[in-house]
Amino acid sequence: MAEPDAAAAPAAKLRRDSNPFQHNEYPNSLFGEILDWMLAPLLLLWPISIAATNHVASYIANQPYDQALADNVASIMRLVSIDGDRVTVNLPASARTLLHVEDNDVLFYQVVGPNSKLLHGDREIPWPNLPPQVEARKILFRDDRIEADNVRIAYAFIPVKSGLPPVVVQVAETLRKREELASRIISGVLLPQFAIIPLAVILVYLGLTRGIAPLHKLRDRIRRRRPTDLSPIPVYPVPDEVRPLVVAFNEMMGRLEDNLQAQQRFIAQAAHQMRTPLTGLKTQTEIALSETDPAQMRHALQLIAESTDRASHMINQLLILARAEASHEKLHRVVPVDLDALARDVAGEWVVRALAKQIDLGFEGNGAPLMVSGVPLLLRELLANLVDNAIKYTPRQGCVTLRVHGSNRAVVEVDDDGIGIPVEESANVFERFYRVLGTDVDGSGLGLPIAAEIAELHQARIELLPGTKGRGCLFRVSFPERPHAAGQHAAVPQRPTAGNFPVGL
Q1: Are 104 and 180 in contact (CB under 8 A)?
Q2: Which of residues 300, 323, 346 is at a domain's end?
Q3: 200-209: per-residue pLDDT in tens?
Q4: Which pTM does this prediction carry?
């Protein structure tokens, strides 16, 4: 039983590797992204909230105890008597005892005379900095240390007489009660947050789940559709944020349906067109098999060969059209192409065909490189189809000219003096399998549609105009406008004929 599992493992791995959504390129879902962006600020603000709460709690805890210290300082100042430069403190022993009685904290007091002599109290309290302007009996506060303890000190200055330093009254208290009160405040504020934050996370999760539920419904509606159903998705029940995406999706489905219909029409037309040469081949083969005269048999085989050539040419044209319709960005790389050199090469390739029909095939170049962005293989096919069409519908002793010119906009023209195309039919010549009636020229009706398809892929415009000699046709392909290239010169027409093309064509 281990062998089937071992054989299935590579197949499962291949399926996983072929699914782009299984890779780490898309690690997060939309739900996860929204959840992250909602919870990350919350978790970032929580430490800031703790710090702010601690600051506010300390401020609140200081208020009543600072007031008590200030009252003690004021009480001591009322017991200080000043007579000239003599300072006395009428502080009873019971009051001195009360100043040191505290449950948790240690209280210190101090009265220092103008001669910096300790009159009453504790020496441990540090001496304050004397301000430049002493405000009499104004109670001030500062933080300091007494031995290993942090203390809060309230102090005031009592002026004596001019020229003498003021009397200093100080009361100091350790910070245990303040810290305990601040801790109780912080605990009362933060403990509920430990329950609120997880509850907020759960509510956010449930809210997001409910918020994206319409997306799941939209997904289910799309999944329930038949593979052939390309009709638009109803937009009215879709959330506003997703509506533009659904509209764009409907537009894409519309384009896809148009392409599928065009493909079906093309396949039907191609099958119809291929039926004719295949039927002829079968008929001619049956005739050749029934012939006993070698000359008649040879004639029948020659007809079979010609029919085979026509069928082969049509198949090649169909393949070229399919390649032109495909995404050429995927199949071919767009590169700078010298249109002048490419057109010269194409004209040289068709010289033999033109000579065989006694047609004067001419080329009028730009006289300098004429660069466009495109796919060389497809551009060559475009020019070849236009030249082929011109030679095919131009009678013997006629004239065909391949012309390239332009500066900011590259233009290619194929001009002939052939039978021409009636004005009422000029709009149909770029349709597939369409052929002008009244001509005895063999053709597939695909050459001009292929040229139009390639021109559209290169964002160029193809036009059918009257021939410059008063008869025939002029096919003009105008490429997109581009910045003027340095060193580009005006067109220098030259016209070698089919009998005197320069070497290299």
Answers
A1: yes
A2: 323
A3: 778 888 877 8
A4: 0.44
